[in-house]
Amino acid sequence: MLPTSTSTFPQYAQKFCNQVDAALDELTSYGQGCPDPLRDAIRHIVLAPGKRLRPTLVLMAAEVCGECNHVSLAAACAVEMIHTYSLIHDDLPAMDDDDLRRGRPTCHLVFGEATAILAGDALLAQAFEVLAGCGAEPSVVSNCCLELAQAAGACALVGGQADDLAAASTAADLELLESIHARKTGAMFRVSLRIGALVGGASDEQYQRLDTYGEKLGLAFQITDDLLDLSGNESNLGKRTGKDDEHQKLTFPGLLGVKESERRAAQLVDEACQALGPFGERAQGLEMLARYVLERTT
Q1: How far apart are CA 70 and CA 208, in angstroms?
Q2: How many angstroms separate the CA atoms of 181 and 221, rounded?
Q3: What is the end-to-end Cα distance of the chain in Å, rounded?
Q4: pLDDT digits (tens, 9 = 90+) for 74-128
Q5: What are the structural domains, with CATH classification, of the chain?
Q6: Contact by Cβ (8 Å): 56, 77
Q7: What Cα–Cα distance (Å) separates residue 5 from each residue in 9, 12, 284?
Q8: Where are the beta strands (DSSP E) in the chain?
């Protein structure tokens, strides 16, 4: 379904969010064998109000290439589980040491560090269980699992987080900063689109176009995230602001300044939208998302 001329991206994306929320609720109900504190810790963050951008990208990519169905919904939930696991672990005292996530106290503050770690572990494993059982052709499932494992691994998401933690003690360097976020943020944006393309039956060109879009969008999103940490509203964001400076983290506005960071984000969004050209009207939602990244306050 294409967006209307009067709809905003959050309004357009609400249908995808509702589908993902309902599926995640069912997937994290669990059965016998999962201890209640572990289940509650998982659901505390998984079901907290969020933008659901990454699973929405999966569904939008599948829709623009073919159709959005139960297979793409399962893939979207798998991506969101990986993302949520990473948030739970990033918030731990040994990592970013945050106390607020998605408008709620962070998982370790409510349930303790050990249970929070186990909640993240469980979500990491379940993501591949959900993806493996999504009902797609075996070759598609295999490719999706490979893509997601690589995006979440030591050379991508986890490696980016490791370098992010170490960056405060290194000299400011734009190449390092872009490398960190190409892995930490960008890898999960790109894999969302790639998995959506795979389950949607994309052609090679469509797959490459969506991957380029995701690469540009992910970096633009991170730049705006850095800017919002400087000037955003905590109640809108659902997380603390000012923590980048507090932890002396390497950021785009800290390195480039606010104006240049804004200019760079706008350029990346333009390049992301250009990559969507061959999709025509079908990519209106993806283009709307890219523009929303520049305007968002949450």
Answers
A1: 24
A2: 10
A3: 25
A4: 999 999 999 999 999 999 999 999 999 988 999 999 999 999 999 999 999 999 9
A5: 9-295 (1.10.600.10)
A6: no
A7: 11, 11, 10
A8: 100-101, 104-105
